[in-house]
Each structure stands twice: as C-alpha cells, then as structure tokens.
Design a protein that fits this description.
There is one protein chain. By secondary structure, the protein is mainly alpha-helical. It has a single domain, classed as Hypothetical protein af1432. The protein has 15 helices and no strands. The N and C termini lie far apart (74 Å). The structure holds magnesium ion (MG). Magnesium ion (MG) binds next to α4.
C-alpha cells in the first residue's frame, strides 16, 4: 500500500460522512495518474503555492494601495488568513482540510492590481466584463503554467469560482449561489470573516477610524479586540453548523447580523472613505491608460501568439500594483537621455 493510499484510508475513517473524500474526487479535466505520496487535494494545494500568480499576491492591494507600512494586509496575507480560518473550521467539523486549504489559497488568484478599483476598470472596459472570482478560475485553468493551466480537481475549481458574495447575502440556501462542497462553503464564509476583521484592524492602523468608532453592537456581540472577534465568529460557525440537520455551513443569527452590520459599516467608513477613494481614482486612471495604450500598441504587451482582448485582460489583471505603476511610468513619463560627458 502506498503512503497516499494509507492517507486516504485514514481520511475515510476520520472525516464526517458528508465530507468530500480525496479518493472520490470528481477528477481533473485532463486525467492524470495519482501521486504515490500525496492525496489529490494536497497536490492541488501544492500546484497553487508553486504558481507565479500566487507569489504575485504579495504585491497586490487588499484595501490600502501599495502600502508603505509593512504591517498592512496584502492580498497574500489576506489569503493566508482566510486559509487558516477555513482550516480551523474544517478540522473542527471533520471536513476535508486539504480541500479547504487548496480552495482558500487559490480563491483570489484572479485579483487585479489596486483591489476592487482595478476590478471595476476591467469590468467597464472589457467586452465580457470582469469579476475576480471568474478570473481566479481562468488563471488556474488557462493562464498559469504558460497557458496550460494547473489541471486542478473539479472540487477546487468549483470552490474558487463560487467563493464570492460581494455585497450579496452572506448566508443563503440558494444552491446556485453556493459551492458544490461543504468545504467550498467554509471558504466562502471564511473569506468574509477574515476580511471584515482585518480591514477593520487596518483602518484603525491607518487612523481612518478609532476604537471608539467601532459600532457598539460589534463589540457587544463579537468582542472588543480583533482576536476575540475572529475567535467568536469561528466558534459561532462551528457551533451553529449542524450537518445532521442540513448540509449548510452556518453562523448564529446574532453573529450573522453583526457581520452584515460590520460589512456595511466598512463600506461606508473605509472602502468608500474619501482618503481611500482618492488613491483608488488615481489607480483607476492608471489602469485605464494602460488598457488604452496596449489596445493601440499591441506589440508593447510582449504577449506571444495572437493578440486577443482576453489576453490583454489576463495581462493587466495579473500585474502587481508595483509592476503596473512602473509600467505606466515607463510608458507615460519621458525618460531622460544618458549623455556621455
Ligand atoms: Mg478573498
């Protein structure tokens, strides 16, 4: 028996009956032999961690653009926080931690530079529109690995595509809005548990808000510190989810209401705050300039093969904040000639 087969046996014994089992994966687009050591979702996780798109997350905006302060979240640290929250919940519910980890690590690979302002620009200029979750799937299917894709399992791809809620309902029973697996549901919820809490902390760090501004309901229901709030939300998911009753990952009503309140509060006082918006508007102009110039001067993209709008979207969406700024400078700011004395 191989190490992988032994691990699959352990998984089968330990996991909840409704958990997704690696051995029973719906498989990959292009069938592959199984690994001797790792189970299928472990392989997916490794492929994501080794991808270039994953490494670029460290220089992509979460909320604060290209932050100078070393303690602000980036898209990478957001991704890692989501992953750890999701793993904690999965382990407590006896669901598949490897699957949760792979989905969480891949969920934001399609994010543009400059956060949601970059996303808004590409959505406006691109004929097919743009959404980061759809782009995350495109990255793992068609962009990574020189266009070959990572050939991930169907469960991981489904979880990546359907992690998103935007301003829509956090809890839903609509099967079309939910991932196909319970593990995907965990990531979908962990994403918002992570971002509302760390964005609040970053807004405090940036002095956009002070502790006294935090809505009293948030302190009353979730706690006075970042640590307490995250802990209580995770506990609420674990205690409220009852898989014997229904296959849904849930939060208590009080926690859910408070989470909605906190999300709305952040939209109003942080994401749409004039100080934050002003930089976002500059970023939007910058990305729009890049779109325009590359549409005119296709050869400047350096893209191989036939130029298509999709490829330009992939190129721009894949840029880090820093790369986009440098590219814009090199294309729009006259460079001085070096003259030998
Ligand atoms: Mg996210």
């Amino acid at each position: 028996m191989t190490p992988r087969e032994r691990a699959e046996q352990r998984e089968d014994k330990f996991l909840h009956p409704m958990a997704t089992r690696s051995a029973a994966t719906r498989g990959r687009e292009r069938p592959e032999d199984r690994c001797t050591v790792r189970m299928e979702f472990q392989r997916d996780r490794d492929r994501i961690v080794h991808s270039k798109s994953f490494r670029r997350l460290s220089r992509k905006t979460q909320v604060f653009l290209n932050p100078d302060g070393d303690h602000y979240r980036t898209r990478m640290t957001h991704t890692l926080e989501v992953t750890q929250i999701a793993r904690t919940i999965a382990r407590a519910l006896h669901l598949n931690e490897d699957l949760v980890e792979a989905i969480a690590l891949g969920h934001d690979l399609g994010h543009t530079p400059f956060g949601h302002s970059g996303e808004a620009v590409l959505n406006k200029v691109s004929r097919n529109g743009f959404h980061h979750a759809v782009q995350s799937l495109r990255v793992v299917e068609h962009v990574e690995n020189s266009g070959e894709g990572l050939n991930l399992t169907e469960e991981v791809r489904d979880g990546i595509l359907r992690h998103t809620k935007g301003k829509g309902p956090i809890l839903t029973r609509n099967p079309d809005a939910l991932p196909a697996t319970l593990e995907g549901q965990i990531v979908r919820l962990s994403d918002i548990l992570a971002y509302v809490n760390h964005d609040l902390e970053d807004a405090l760090r940036a002095n956009l808000l002070s502790e006294a501004d935090i809505p009293p309901e948030v302190v009353r229901h979730l706690g006075a510190t970042h640590r307490e709030r995250i802990g209580n939300l995770i506990l609420s998911v674990i205690e409220t989810t009852d898989l014997e009753r229904e296959p849904l990952v849930l939060l208590s009503d009080a926690a859910h209401e408070t989470l909605v309140l906190l999300r709305n509060y952040l939209y109003e006082h942080c994401y749409d705050h004039p100080t934050v918006r002003v930089e976002f508007e500059k970023a939007e102009r910058l990305l729009r300039d890049l779109w325009t110039i590359f549409s005119e001067k296709r050869q400047w993209t350096g893209l191989e093969g036939e130029f298509t709008e999709e490829k330009l979207v992939d190129y721009l969406a894949g840029m880090t904040d820093r790369y986009a700024i440098r590219k814009w400078e090199s294309l729009f700011v006259p460079q001085s000639w070096f003259v030998k004395a």
